[in-house]
């Protein structure tokens, strides 16, 4: 009778351990996607998002990109031209406008504002001509080329052609406001 009990005891012992093994494997599987998501949210080195994050004058823009998750888009593949407002440019916004834009309920408005600064494709300063360019938010920006300066929507481009792995960055001195946001938090005020 003892020989018959050993296989049964062994089967019962294995059956008791099986749920623990499956539970441990399930926990390992749960951890893997979180690590993958974090890696996906980290901009690729040399990308537009990484270059802005590493720049000393783009902390507000970087925060806004993270809030809207556009840092993921500008941190991976694709080719873009970004007219990047500096921290000084954001400081010129009407008082309270930036704080209001950063509220969770205004995420789509902030996203639209940021996408108004992004053009599909890569345009070096020499490529910019008088006329309009369609932005990623669907609206158009006016490019004004003068002999000494180049402007986009009355924002002067003062540092141009910062090349990234997925496009180019041009620093501008003013936050551009799309028509769709005129009147929101005083953004159409000069």
TrEMBL record:
The keyword Signal applies. Residues 1-23 form the signal peptide. SUPFAM superfamilies: FAS1 domain (SSF82153). Pfam families: Fasciclin (PF02469). Residues 36-45 have a biased composition (Low complexity). PANTHER family: FI19380P1 (PTHR10900:SF77), PERIOSTIN-RELATED (PTHR10900). This is Fasciclin domain-containing protein. It comes from Luteolibacter arcticus.
């Amino acid at each position: 009778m003892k020989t018959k009990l050993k296989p049964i005891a062994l089967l019962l012992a294995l059956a008791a351990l099986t749920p623990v093994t499956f539970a441990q494997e399930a926990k390992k599987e749960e951890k893997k996607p979180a690590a993958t998501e974090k890696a996906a949210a980290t901009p690729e080195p040399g990308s537009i998002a990484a270059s802005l994050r590493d720049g000393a004058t783009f902390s507000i823009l970087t925060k806004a990109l993270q809030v809207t998750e556009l840092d993921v888009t500008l941190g991976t593949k694709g080719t873009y031209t970004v007219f990047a407002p500096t921290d000084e440019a954001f400081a010129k916004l009407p008082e309270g406008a930036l704080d209001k834009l950063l509220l969770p309920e205004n995420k789509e408005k902030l996203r639209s504002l940021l996408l108004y600064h992004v053009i599909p494709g890569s345009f070096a300063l020499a490529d910019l001509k008088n006329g309009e360019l369609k932005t990623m938010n669907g609206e158009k920006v006016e490019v004004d080329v003068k002999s000494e300066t180049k402007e986009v929507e009355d924002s002067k481009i003062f540092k141009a052609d910062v090349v990234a792995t997925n496009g180019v960055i041009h620093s501008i001195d003013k936050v551009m406001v799309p028509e769709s946001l005129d009147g929101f938090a005083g953004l159409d005020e000069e």
